[in-house]
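User: Structure tokens for this complex, please. No commentary.
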Amino acid sequence: MASLQRVQAQFMSFDEPLPLRSGAVLPAYSLAFETYGELNAARSNAVLVCHALNASHHVAGLDEQGATGWWDNLVGPGKPLDTDRFFVIGVNNLGSCFGSTGPRQVNPATGHAWGADFPVVTVEDWVDAQARLVQRLGIAELAAVLGGSLGGMQALAWTLRYPERLRHCIAVATAPNLSAQNIAFNEVARRAIVTDPDFHGGHYYAHGVVPARGLRVARMIGHITYLSDDAMAQKFGRALRAAELGYSTQAIEFQIESYLRHQGDKFSEYFDANTYLLITRALDYFDPAAEHGGSLSKAFAPARGKRFLLASFTTDWRFAPARSREIVKALVDQRIDVSYAEIDAPHGHDAFLLDDERYHRLMAAYFHQVDRDVRAP
Amino acid sequence: MSERRDLEVIAGLVPAGARVLDLGCGDGELLAWLRQHKGCSGYGVEIDDDKLRRCVERGVNVVQMDLEQGLALFDDHSFDVVLQLETLQHLRNTERMLRETARVGRIGIVSFPNFAHWPNRLRVASGRMPVTKALPYEWYDTPNIRVGTYADFEVLARKSGLEVTDSFGLHEGQVVRRWPNLRASVAVFRFERH
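Assistant:
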């Protein structure tokens, strides 16, 4: 199917301060975003797409650099989230390194880059910022909010914070909070970054360096958790790079090593270390049940009347199906409309970004419903 | 079509406005009908990808789940009616499933092929397994891992502490109340907890 041609990032600045969950206040900020498709006359066909750890507002189509959006297989004309029917918004989150206000940008209070002083932002803070953008676009009610993984957490948070401003929530490969194991992986990644001698307490911009070594290791660890054991075995197995073992402890011997190093190298060239720290923290902190004595069911009380689709992937051990089922249970307890699919896909957590036929047909079916809902009088 | 008539008869057993859990809901036809005509709400449970998608297409709430894992997702007494239509015969743990049905719902309604329907008896008497509209499979490729009779279910219901409040047979879309164990291809039971 065809992709959207040339899409362009837009920016929106906000002068009203944004109070953050930590108690800190972001005095002013701007958000990078892209939109695809046309907003209808009733302004009722808008779908917000929330991004995960390393993605951005560039969801679909080709940007000025010729880069394809991260969810281009799902979003576009004739695709499951059909831009011929919906007005789709991709927003870059605060603290990111892709255009929205973040640690690389100048802190007006000091005249220097924010660096490590950028305030800790949470999923809820992101959603608050997104809500202001949506409002500024003149959209009183979103047809749907969609996200996978960390993006799914944002989609869930929308239903708790702004239930009157959306109809449908579609949360894929997500969780109601991170497990200790998940936090542990994030912590290893963060330690890799902050112990890199080039980190300089997060103020590496001033030194003209980046903690690339730390970022590489962080990405390697992350990448392992996004793939299933089977997918890795199938793709790489124990294949060697050379014909025989080189009996070296330092050289790349196995193909999997080569792959991970390549992923790490690529990532360290475009991603910001402070952003990585901030985003993994936002993941760690998300826990809507915490304010309700640990009851996820109680946490979802504000979402009554909304409609949900949840999907998980059988081989995803980072955000396992059992975690999605916890959310489904909470919604069922609240008698909220929900459908849940457990998709038998071999790829692990990454499956949510891939073009699996069953998955995409399900998404198309759900968005068909959303479309019908939007058109209903 | 008799299957459609069967559904209508069973839909007639569901009170208006009921909260319904439909175990093995297929493509969601019954739930959609109950929602539209009787103002019911609730969820379907289905394991098959294609059927699940058809539920989603028609806007029926559906949860993909293997019923062999039980109904832990659903709290005690959280539904008015739990339906288990043409599902029981596919489950290994029939007895546990019935107890789960009674735990989750106030009323349980089950239907399944009645193996004691007279053509089946004749066929077995002739030395062969029956292949009929209600039991359309050869013995070697049937997905039905449990075959039981109308009379057998009465025994199991008693053993499981369920109070049968209505029961009848269905055949070719007609309700069979006289000698259902002999005359009906499908058995239907409505029960409540003791």
